[in-house]
């Protein structure tokens, strides 16, 4: 009788091991296909996000293959990171699959050139929060951290002095929770005036979206401040942490 009981306990533990969702690490997909300009910093960005995954207990898969953007594959991931994607990267079927993924509670993270992507797909522009319009030469600028009560910004100074490639935007969404703005008086070439966000998040169409315009230069991906910034965005998009503290 004791042997039967032991077998029962062992079987129960095995069942719990295989069905317990807490036991499985969440996964993200880093997608970095480019159909326009290819950023040399993508390689450093992939390595940095993989390291963040190891340190924070989530799995990081990477691809440039748009055929992976199908719903059966996407539903395995808590979030998809568009790492400096550019141009027209999806066909109609892939666009529909990604929309379905977001509408079913998926997460989106856009880094830098993710807004220089899919200009002919208005839904994507609304998800990302804006479209890229232009940029001046790389230079130092003052970033104003307008909300420091979030997991993506709590570690940042109120004025974050930084060198990068500073995007100007068009079609900026009106539903964005802006985290960081850029002071156009601190550099040359800004065209958005006082309404010049460079990092934001919002709930969109059933899912979660975070975007940061930073990340053009390779040095970004060894900068602890920037890495913690994108980690917060990833964790929010994955649904494992709330953005607001």
Keywords:
two-stranded antiparallel sheet; Class_I_gatase-like; alpha/beta; ThuA-like; nine-stranded mixed beta sheet; ThuA domain-containing protein; 245 residues; Rossmann fold
Helix and strand element order: HEHEHEHEHEEEEEEEH
Can you tell me the CATH architecture of the domain at 25-132 and 198-238? 3-Layer(aba) Sandwich
Query: How much is the average pLDDT?
Result: 94
Question: CATH topology of the domain at 25-132 and 198-238, anyone?
Answer: Rossmann fold
The stretches of 5 or more residues where confidence is low (pLDDT under 50) are 4-22
Number of helices: 6
CATH superfamily of the domain at 25-132 and 198-238: Class I glutamine amidotransferase (GATase) domain
Give an overview in words.
The protein is an alpha/beta fold. The protein has a domain at 25-132 and 198-238: Class I glutamine amidotransferase (GATase) domain (Rossmann fold), CATH 3.40.50.880. It contains six helices and eleven strands. It has helices at 2-19, 42-56, 71-74, 92-103, 122-128, 224-238; strands at 27-31, 59-63, 79-83, 107-111, 131-134, 139-145, 159-164, 168-170, 177-182, 197-204, 207-212. Residues 4-22 have low confidence and may be disordered. InterPro entries: Class_I_gatase-like, ThuA-like. This is ThuA domain-containing protein.
